[in-house]
Amino acid sequence: MAEPARLERLERRVRELEEELARERRGRAAARARIDTMSAEVTDSNPYSRLMALKRMGIVKDYEKIRTFTVAVVGVGGVGSVTAEMLTRCGIGKLLLFDYDKVELANMNRLFFQPHQAGLSKVQAAEHTLRDINPDVQFEVHNYNITTLDNFEHFMDRISNGALEEGKPVDLVLSCVDNFEARMAINTACNELGQIWMESGVSENAVSGHIQLIIPGESACFACAPPLVVAANIDEKTLKREGVCAASLPTTMGVVAGMLVQNVLKYLLNFGTVSYYLGYNAMQDFFPTMSMKPNPQCSDHNCRKQQENYKKKEAARPKEEVIEKEEEIVHEDNDWGIELVSEISEDELKAASGPVPELPEGISVAYTIPDKEENLITGETVAESEESLEELMAKMRNM
Amino acid sequence: MAEPARLERLERRVRELEEELARERRGRAAARARIDTMSAEVTDSNPYSRLMALKRMGIVKDYEKIRTFTVAVVGVGGVGSVTAEMLTRCGIGKLLLFDYDKVELANMNRLFFQPHQAGLSKVQAAEHTLRDINPDVQFEVHNYNITTLDNFEHFMDRISNGALEEGKPVDLVLSCVDNFEARMAINTACNELGQIWMESGVSENAVSGHIQLIIPGESACFACAPPLVVAANIDEKTLKREGVCAASLPTTMGVVAGMLVQNVLKYLLNFGTVSYYLGYNAMQDFFPTMSMKPNPQCSDHNCRKQQENYKKKEAARPKEEVIEKEEEIVHEDNDWGIELVSEISEDELKAASGPVPELPEGISVAYTIPDKEENLITGETVAESEESLEELMAKMRNM
């Protein structure tokens, strides 16, 4: 081929390829510019019109306030990723994401991640997708395991200082992790900092789950009582075998993420009734609710300290207000302060032996914490106890 | 620049661009090949390991059977898109999607669609994303409104013949539409065909929703009783104004889609208890369940025909089996056959006047259907009654 013709052909090819590449990239990039002020204007191009309509419908007084809040999501798996996506689409101000896993094809049976992201870190893949969905949200991602000494300290620092206004604490911490050790680390951090958080969990057989609101000093922490789960009505022993691959379903995890973020919205934007505990039994479509007072003998000394602070604060409040509050979440004639918000009558509470609280029908404990090892899960030893906690977990699995 | 150097530079540029383009396209395309047989192998690269684990956990006997089923999803909006994604990730055999809307930025407050898809038809955008997520699923999409005459006939034809094996009916139809007319069209089609379907809905104030299983002749159809909604505990009049932009939340829609697909999985794979009606009141975290017998005076003559067929079928069954079935879903001392599956005692049922059935606490009717116009919503007139149905809906909005 003559050189001028060859040059011309190559130049044309470069132009074609540049155009195709630009088109591909346009397709993947965020298709909208940032929006300075949330508007209720009803147009097809307004991503906030259906959220701002909550004001007109009389549900939320001040929806725009969502932009002032920062939420930390620990664990960006089946529940955490959907939780982060829901908050992003709702227009939350800032999200902090913590995870140390990589996306795998084995995660494709749950919502959010896509096969082409396999191999990427979960927090990076999530940040990329979420930024495209809503460029108005600020993201801060940490690709590490919060339970190791250095990381735990950094995690404490970020939830204390990582709000939209640097130096201020986040508004909520959400636990979307899949193991006991990480939950205990979050519990320890939040008890020390007096940080309000919500717990979430899905059973290994994929057919039950729960969410729980923990206000240090006011409601039971994760160390106050054995972790609660919704009874799955199947032989629990089959779930505890070592090395068994846990089952999971996008349905159960989607419902739990939805219940969790709904509770977050109700808590942050002050509408409806915020649930202290809401369970989901998918086999029977049963959703038990309850609330629990903290345990005065809690093994976490920071929880006990927060309980003292709460008592002092309550005592200092005007009388009526205190009574109203007490009636709302505390049940006096029950050592563990369990209150049945609905569904189950007091008579249906059944006694349980040992360190297991009385629980409404349909809720049971995931495992009981051996007394002699209780020091392992207090605040001071979270960092050093890494190996022992693993031992503890192995024991629990064999119970 | 000398011509040889220019040629070399251009050739290098073409190679670079081709590589970049290939990388971009690899990123967007399905990152996995098709999988012939579902395996329970526990590896990071097996997208079905966590689903097949349901067998080991004793929840589902034959999970692989999911691949033999075809489900039609009508309406690919806030609930329908997540419903289709969950079924795709669960490895359903074939999905039929029906919608005539385009993706808009105003949809970004719900899960699934992304800003770069704005302007595309919902069914095409959904098919593209879902194929990437799971190339093992077969898709058939229809970008039309099922309520017009021609489209309604085509819709009937596809649900009668569109299964994996062409010529066989789909296993389930899921209604994820947002209006009365489309629900009535699905109801009419399913009554005529004897097609089992599930209804779903979310209130205009975004804080309640429900799912409902309709087995023609066996449980109440959409025309048997006024459509049921979960009471929202707010002034319903504020919701019925013309031209008001409905509010929506990714949380409520995610929960409703999760409840719906969970019910689909339980129904198709034969585990747990399939719910006839499950409501969701997000303000109080209240989830009422119930079931309802068909109305012998239903305005849809095909519903009445299906009721006769069901009675004959039941009469022909061995005696014990019939009794068991009756006890399961029918409540004898109640005209409307409402059975309370949980939560509410019989005493709590309150009487209602007119064509409104007695309902458990927390459930109310969306609107009542005027008697004199009942012919408009029977099978024979669905196509011709388009304008009149709009008038009917306008009247209902003003009730």
UniProtKB/TrEMBL annotation, chains A, B:
Q: Which InterPro entries match?
A: D-isomer_DH_CS1, ThiF/MoeB/HesA, ThiF_NAD_FAD-bd, Ubiquitin-activating_enz
Whether Coiled coil counts among this entry's keywords is: yes
Gene3D superfamilies attached here?
NAD(P)-binding Rossmann-like Domain
Instruction: Give a single Pfam family match.
Output: ThiF
Database matches in PROSITE patterns? D_2_HYDROXYACID_DH_1
For this UniProt record, the keywords arranged alphabetically read as follows: ATP-binding, Coiled coil, Metal-binding, Nucleotide-binding, Ubl conjugation pathway, Zinc
Q: Please, one GO biological process term?
A: erythrocyte differentiation
| Keyword Iron (UniProt) | no
Question: What GO molecular functions are on record for this protein?
Answer: ATP binding; protein homodimerization activity; UFM1 activating enzyme activity; zinc ion binding
Chain ranges of the THIF-type NAD/FAD binding fold domain = 48-299
Its GO CC terms are: cytosol; endoplasmic reticulum membrane
Coiled-coil intervals, chain numbering: 7-34
State the PANTHER family in the record: UBIQUITIN-ACTIVATING ENZYME E1 (PTHR10953), UBIQUITIN-LIKE MODIFIER-ACTIVATING ENZYME 5 (PTHR10953:SF9)
Family designation: Belongs to the ubiquitin-activating E1 family. UBA5 subfamily.
Protein name as catalogued: Ubiquitin-like modifier-activating enzyme 5
